[in-house]
Design a protein that fits this description.
six-stranded mixed beta sheet; Rossmann fold; alpha/beta; single chain; 10 strands
């Protein structure tokens, strides 16, 4: 079943050539994708389009068969800069999405129509993810008191507490130390496996793309029209990063991206 479909998607910033032109792409439900390419190729722009924060100049984006004309309540977006409120604690930041949903109610726009907004259940969901992400002990601290990895985990907890069916992550592991990066990668992979969550990760890191994406979409500078995709079905499997296939796929991506730089 198709989760996402772009149909003849065209988008350009003012007075610039199109980043996407008649761009057609399909993502199946439960897929895990990595999107990679040189700086300025449109990776983050594509995420903002999928999240409904940008609108196409022409063409359409459909998620679960419905055209996207604005943010969708079941889509979870984790931004590179985390988007945490500096005056709020870890617990308050992690609960922010659910607090906003409680304000609007189950209106189908800000909140799914079938959402259970019982406060106790919301609180349990937030605390579950803080525990799962190893930051429950930081619940009363503020973003300025946290490491970058702790801020990233707070942003991820906020998103996962909203029970998305589509998780969109913009450079989620950048500037993290190796142990934190590997722990978050494993968490994301495990979440994908156990919940069937559709995931799309933007990265500039070739190894991250090969670890995380069962399919890798390569964007190029200039206008993206034709799809360039690498199949990488061993992504997420146990010991994948230590296998010959992992090194071969990394090498293929190095060659392709070298041609694009």
């Amino acid at each position: 079943m198709e989760m996402i479909e772009t149909k003849d998607l065209t988008f350009a910033y003012s007075n610039s050539q199109p980043i996407f032109k008649a761009f057609n792409w399909q993502v199946q439900q439960g897929d895990s994708w990595a999107v990679i390419g040189p700086s300025g190729c449109g990776k983050t722009t594509l995420l903002y389009l999928l999240a409904g924060l940008y609108q196409p100049d022409s063409g359409s984006i459909f998620i679960e068969g419905l055209e996207i004309t604005g943010p969708r309540p079941r889509s979870g977006l984790v931004l590179q800069d985390h988007g945490l409120l500096p005056w709020s604690t870890v617990l308050e930041n992690a609960r922010l999405g659910l607090t906003i949903r409680e304000f609007y109610g189950s209106d189908g726009r800000h909140t799914p129509l079938d959402e259970d907004l019982h406060t106790d259940k919301s609180d349990r969901r937030v605390r579950y993810w803080l525990e799962k992400l190893g930051i429950a002990h930081l619940h009363d601290m503020f973003p300025s008191q946290l490491s970058r990895g702790q801020r990233q985990r707070t942003a991820i907890a906020r998103t996962l507490a909203m029970q998305p069916d589509l998780l969109i992550l913009d450079e989620p592991f950048s500037a993290l130390d190796a142990p934190t990066r590997e722990a978050l990668q494993k968490l994301t992979i495990d979440l994908h496996k156990t919940s069937g969550l559709t995931t799309i990760i933007v990265t500039h890191d070739i190894e991250v793309a090969v670890i995380m994406g069962k399919r890798i979409l390569i964007l190029n500078e200039g206008t993206n029209h034709h799809l360039r995709i690498i199949e990488n079905q061993n992504a997420g499997s146990r010991g994948h990063r230590y296998q010959t296939g992992f090194r071969d796929t990394c090498q293929d991506l190095h060659h392709i991206l070298g041609d694009l730089l």
